[in-house]
C-alpha cells in the first residue's frame, strides 16, 4: 500500500455542501483500496465508499501572444464516510 496516494483535498463550496462526501486529488495509479486505507490512516475515520473520476486536462491560452497550453490530466476521488464520522476537513 502506498501512503502518499493523496495529493491534496479539494475543498470548495460545492464539495462541502454534500455533508459526508469529501473530494481528494489522488495519484493516477491509485486504486480504490489504496485511497480508502490512506484516508482512514491519515484522518482517523472509517470510510464507507470510494468513487474515482479521471478528469481530462483542458486547453488554456496564456501569455500576451495567447499561446495554447494543455493542462495535465488528474484523478479525483470522492470519499464517503460512515454515519457518525466527521473529518478534520469539516472542522476547519
Describe this structure in words.
Strand 4 and strand 5 (67-70) form a beta hairpin. It is built from three helices and six strands, in the order βαβαββββα. With 92 residues, it is of the alpha+beta class. It has helices spanning 13-16, 32-43, 88-91, and strands at residues 6-9, 21-26, 47-55, 59-62, 67-70, 74-81. The model has no long low-confidence stretch (mean pLDDT 86). A four-stranded antiparallel sheet has the order 1-2-6-3, with helices on one face.
Which terms summarize this structure?
3 helices; alpha+beta; two-stranded antiparallel sheet; 38% strand; 22% helix; 92 residues
Biggest sheet, strands in spatial order?
1-2-6-3
Cα-atom radius of gyration = 15 Å
Instruction: Indicate the structural class.
Output: alpha+beta
Q: What portion of residues belong to β-strands?
A: 35-45%
Mean pLDDT, to the nearest integer, reads 86
Distance between the termini: 28 Å
Q: What secondary-structure arrangement, pairings included, does this model have?
A:
Blueprint: E1 6-9, H1 13-16, E2 21-26, H2 32-43, E3 47-55, E4 59-62, E5 67-70, E6 74-81, H3 88-91
Antiparallel strand pairs: 1-2, 2-6, 3-6, 4-5
Amino acid at each position: 500500500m502506498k501512503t502518499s496516494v493523496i495529493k491534496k483535498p479539494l475543498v470548495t463550496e460545492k464539495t462541502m455542501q454534500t455533508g459526508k462526501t469529501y473530494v481528494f486529488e489522488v495519484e493516477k495509479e491509485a486504486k480504490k483500496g489504496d485511497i480508502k486505507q490512506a484516508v482512514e490512516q491519515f484522518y482517523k475515520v472509517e470510510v464507507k465508499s470510494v468513487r474515482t473520476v479521471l478528469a481530462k486536462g483542458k486547453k488554456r491560452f496564456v501569455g500576451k501572444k495567447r499561446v495554447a497550453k494543455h493542462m495535465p490530466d488528474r484523478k479525483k476521488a470522492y470519499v464517503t464516510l460512515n454515519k457518525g464520522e466527521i473529518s478534520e476537513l469539516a472542522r476547519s
